[in-house]
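yo

u said u wanted the structure for the complex thing, so here. seqs first:
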Amino acid sequence: MNELEIMIETHDLRRTFGTKEAVAGISFTARHGEIFGLLGPNGAGKTTTIRMLTGQIDPTSGHAIVAGCDVVKDHTRLKERIGVVFEEQNLYERLSARNNLRFSCWLYGLPESRVDEVLQLVHLRDRAKDPVRAYSNGMKQRLMIARALLHRPPMLFLDEPSKGLDPISAREVRQAIQHLCQEGTTILLTTHLMEEADQLCRRVAFIVNGHIVANDTPRNLKLSHGQKAMTVILDQPEQGQNGNAPLSEVTLSLDNPADAERLARLMAQGHVRAIHSREATLEEVFIEVAGISLV
Amino acid sequence: MHPRSILAIARKDALDILLNKTTLSLLLTPIVLALLFLLIANLLGGHTTNALIYDPGRSSVEQVLKSAYPDLKITYANSSGDVAAAFGPDGSHKTTAYALGLAVPAGFDASLSSGGHPRLNFYVDGSQVSNQQSQLLLSALTNTSRGIANPQPPATITVATVNPPSQNALLNINQFYAAAVLMSSLLVGTTLVPGILAEEKEKRTLRMLMVSPASYSDVVAGKLLVGLVYQLLLAALVLLFALLGSFFSVTLGLLLGSFFQTTSSAGAAAGMLSMIYIIPIFFVGTFAQLFGNNPFTTIVKVLPPYYIADGVINALTNQSTTTGTALDVGVVLGCIVLLLLVATWLLRRQAAVVSTI
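structre next:
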């Protein structure tokens, strides 16, 4: 496989439950080796999309190809080529981590030696014999990732991988995801944590009410929707104009020649402590594009 | 279906069941019930009858007592005086450990055969042996002695019995207990399997299975396999009906597991449904004669476990007929196939209609 190879291609994919249209005709592509983020608030259609792409439910209409397999016609081959980490922690809690993974080895017909390899990968080898119910949320999440990787799938689906995790566990999970990406695994990630998506994803799509409303790299989205301005933090407060109170920071437009002169003057005087661009955050872009907040 | 997936699911469940205290206790229930029935059987009719016998020549009259009391425990005395001392004189009141006593003189059989009239001392504790039983034993001893003295019967008697009574009550009650134990062992499928299937939905692990090479039918077949293994470990008395009963029980359990979303609701329904295994026992074999034909009997005959119980009791009492067995087997097999199809259909339908699995 090469980076140009398309791992996910959907065309007008729809899914209805009764009269409710959970996914209303989405089309996007994800290429080999990239982390593609599907971002949106709860109930936007992210999980339904993953369920269609992983063959758990059939689309009502449209079509999708995942890792070279038609999600409707080629279920058996598809299951061999994907790994899924679910939103909820669905492990066998009475069984140990080792036995949970052994079960997956039996299902996929893999040698049990593979268990130790993936346990090592997610740093759980020391606790392999403990029942899963004794694990922290972060350890369970890492075990689910290990289970999804057991059969070395080229395509991995992660549904809200950091949900409910403390900051340290979430960071461990993010590091694991980045490591997988470096090894060439293509990842589709759903999340409502914009910061996480910004940090991990090469490209993101915003999904709202079953529709994709934006699809680009985080950088392009932020550039196209942010302000062309900068905030200058000053060492010494500058006297406000028209008798206003002194300012410890000023906002300067990048389009205004007068602001360019002002910045040059401040720097010459040695009053500038820091300069921040006013590039929008991904969350601000989402709110602007979708017209709603994420929570 | 994929044998690899089915075996994997069955292996996992077998391991999980052993780690689950609830399911383990369910598995032990039939064993506890069997012990309970054994205790009841012993209390009702299985107590030991103690006899003190002095019989240096091991006469054949001793056999009379053994035939009358299959559970007879014999203690051999060193002399006829020991037996007399254990019971005391006729009509006296004395606490004794023995229900029966017999003092047979040496050379008793030979003396009878040669026309002699040896003396046989028979002792009875009236608090343990009824007067009627005592008289019957006395007659049996007399007849046996006459038979030894003159082996040729004085007359040939031909017996014709109409409305023959069934085997003695003690044997019937043992058959009932055997059937009850077997039927109660069939509870395992209905009580165990709903939990192991519903738990896959409750804990959302079924979703993991659905993205693995396993299919819905593999899941159902895997549960069927593990349920059968545990079921058959406990129910091996009458193989054919144990197998059919187990299939039925497990498929009924699968249906419950498919229908309910949580282990608690599935468990509650399974508990109520379990009664249908017990009720038919009272409407087959000897017990059926007590109830006769009434509307409730007719209702019970609609329940598939009635046909399992009927097959079991007929097999145990050697009263099976080709037609009866075919009917029992046919009804149970038909129900098994139907329940399996409905269980698989329900799982598919739930997955297609709602996003709860």
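The mean pLDDT of chain A is 86. Residues 227-278 of chain A form one domain.
cya
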